[in-house]
Amino acid sequence: MATSHASSTSSGQPKKILRVGIIGLGEIAQVNHISLLNNLSSHFLTTYLCDPSPLALAHCSKKVAGGVPKTTSNPEELVASPLVDVILLCNANAFHAPHCILALSHNKSVLCEKPLALNYRDIDAIIAAEEKSQGRVFVGYQRRYAEAFLDAVKEVGGMEKLQYARVRDIIGPNPTFVAQSGTFPRKFTDFKKEDTEEMIAKDEEAMKYALEHDYGVKVTAASMDMARLLASLGSHDLSAMRELLGMPTSVLGASLQHNSPIWSVLFQYPSFPCTYESGINNVPIFDAHIEVYSNEKIVRVDYDTPYVKGLPVTMTVRERIDNGEREGDGYQERTIRKTYEDPYMLEFLEFYCVVAEGKEPKTGARDARQEVDLWKMILRAGFPAA
Hints:
The protein is of the alpha/beta class. Helix content is 38%, strand content 24%. The strands form 2 sheets. An 8-stranded mixed sheet has the order 8-9-10-7-11-12-13-14, with helices on one face. A 6-stranded parallel sheet has the order 3-2-1-4-5-6, with helices on both faces. A hairpin with an 8-residue loop joins β13 (314-321) and β14. The mean pLDDT is 93. One of its GO terms (molecular function) is nucleotide binding. This is Oxidoreductase family protein.
């Protein structure tokens, strides 16, 4: 099934195998990306790994199929290597912008895990670097590549006047799902002190800059924590909301209590409201969905944890129908699952098309800039100026 997403030769194989350099070997690389690239061996080959932890490099090298990859702790060494065609960034958020710009300076396309950047300054620097580069930026909003989500975009686009929408992502702790994924990831602490200090300093500077210069929000422990949560867990939902519904006109209210594990926001669209609620508790379930209401139809997309392979994303449509006797008295409910291909796989196949075929990325840098617009709206509503 996978080769249907990319141009192929008469033998059914893609025209080119892209050699991948991975920067950052934490949870997402170990649980998903390395094994996914192994499975897509007709499209990708992992040739280089980069991480500040020697133990992580040794551990992940053994997970790579198709040959032993080269390893380094220096991102520039990996990016500059002729053995690497594209870069996969799944390191700490604070390094996404500089390493993305580094890849573009070498004319290499990059798939960057979200968030692309934490403020306008850095995202605009990425956009400027991309304009001078032969490489492209592709942001890893994987939920937007699920077949069920794409179906929902079409379904909602054909609905009459929308009345209401709900975006929810209240989940149990990720370690619960990771431990049951069969991937056996490991955490390492053999980092140099200066590497850890640099990561903390860059994250603090980027977040403080965003709050002070972009959002006009006072820098406090609460506003910093909430900004980080929106840039991590929140990006999944807000990005999908933007594609399905467009950008809201305002935020009517936001409950962003410090140390509260769950938060909520009320968005206003031109003709309807949308509630957004998210957070983490200790019940090991994954309650992530988007639901859109009109007078005659309700469309809902349900996501399960991406850390367990083969759990489908589904679309459910509930609507009034003519029952043949009295108009509009009938009801039907349809739950649609087109594929067991997970959103990460579909995302990587789309990235292949962007690089190998010159396709325009749906989730590019300019699209990601709208994410910062939403964070700004939410944080201003939740932390109003005195």
